[in-house]
Amino acid sequence: MTSVNRRVAIEYQSYVPKNERFHGKKQIPSIVSMLTRLVYFPDKCTSIPNDLDDESKEKKSQVCEKVTQDAKERSRVSRTKENDGVSVRN
């Protein structure tokens, strides 16, 4: 959500050409939560049962491979941003 807030704050502004008072103003979403407990989302690879048929096992391995690739890419992008002098984590 932080990266979404940052993108909206930097890239967007209001568009109300008929009302100069509101036109071209910056906007940012506000996150409000009523959660009172920590929420954990299980890893996609570990949450899939092991007692599957052969076709489902193949799909499970594809999902796990994709999740691993996505995690590596997010890590690479995060390191690249840090090297550019931006200390923002995705």
TrEMBL record:
Sample GO molecular function, one term: cysteine-type endopeptidase activity
Coiled-coil blocks: none
Ranges of Basic and acidic residues composition bias in the record: 56-84
GO BP, sorted A to Z: proteolysis
Domain Caspase family p10: 1-43
Protein name (record): Caspase-1
PROSITE patterns per the UniProt record, alphabetical: CASPASE_P10
Region of interest called Disordered, as start-end residue ranges on this chain: 48-90
Ranges annotated as spanning the membrane: none
InterPro entries on file: Caspase-like_dom_sf, Pept_C14_p10
